[in-house]
Amino acid sequence: MAGYLIEIVPYDPSWPTAYEEERTRLHRALGDCVARLEHMGSTSVPGLDSKPIIDIAAAVTSLATVPDLFPKLEGLGYQPIDQRSPDRYDLWRVGDKGHPSHILHFMADGSDAWIRPIIFRNALRADANIREKYSELKRKLAEECGDDIIAYGQMKNPPSSPTKPPRAEPPPLSQEDRPRGGALDYPPGLTEQPA
User: Fold this and answer.
1) Is 74 domain-assigned?
2) Which segments of 31-148 does DSSP mark as H helices, in order?
3) Which of 106, 113, 109 is nearest to 165 (CA)?
């Protein structure tokens, strides 16, 4: 898919419902192939300006199994995206306007790639100051990048920034701290167990 004009809009309270509807469709299609699904990205943060695209994180036991799921996902309208990260697979579903309405991110369950975006999401949910700074950054970059979604993503998520946790090896998780039951154990102040 060619680039599309990057549009940042005010938070829409219908986004959680859109996620839940898509989660249900994905669960029916994928069943036990996915350990859990999480609403991630900016549309999962009340009050945060965002591209109107629902990001969904899908935890799998092994990334090697993900290409086997492509036929089922294509039946739901998902298309693989040119893969730019060795620690995940991304697919998108194109909406009515000809640009993605949903992006599905497959990551190894319990991996750094899985944990960091969820911790960042919860930090944004918990801190209005971070949320406001991140909204400002996204609006500025959308204006600068126009339809260059690759540049937008790289500038929004540099290796280290005030709005993103630095990339580093996380400490090993003890058995008690491992994700279980569809929820993660978060640091104090970032607790938000999914319903």
Assistant:
1) yes
2) 70-75, 112-126, 128-145
3) 113
Query: What amino acid is encoded at 194 in this protein?
Result: P
pLDDT tens digits for range 76-104: 999 998 877 889 999 999 887 777 899 99
Length of the chain as a residue count? 195
Q: What is the CATH number of the domain that holds 52?
A: 3.30.460.10
Query: Range of 156's domain?
Result: 15-167
Residue 25 gets the label, from left (phi > 0), alpha (psi -120 to 50) or beta, of: alpha
How many structural domains compose the chain?
A: 1
108: three-class secondary structure by DSSP: strand
According to DSSP, the β-strands at 78-80 and 89-94 are: antiparallel
- Would residue 4 count as lying in a domain? no
Provide the whole-model pTM. 0.77
What does the pLDDT look like over 122-156, one tens digit per residue?
A: 999 999 999 999 999 999 998 988 887 778 877 87
Tens digits of per-residue pLDDT, 112-127? 999 999 999 999 999 9
Residue among 98, 118, 157 nearest 36 (CA): 118
Q: Mean pLDDT throughout 58-75?
A: 95
| 78-80 and 54-60 strand pairing | unpaired
188 to 4, 108, 122, 139: CA distances (angstroms): 39, 24, 11, 30
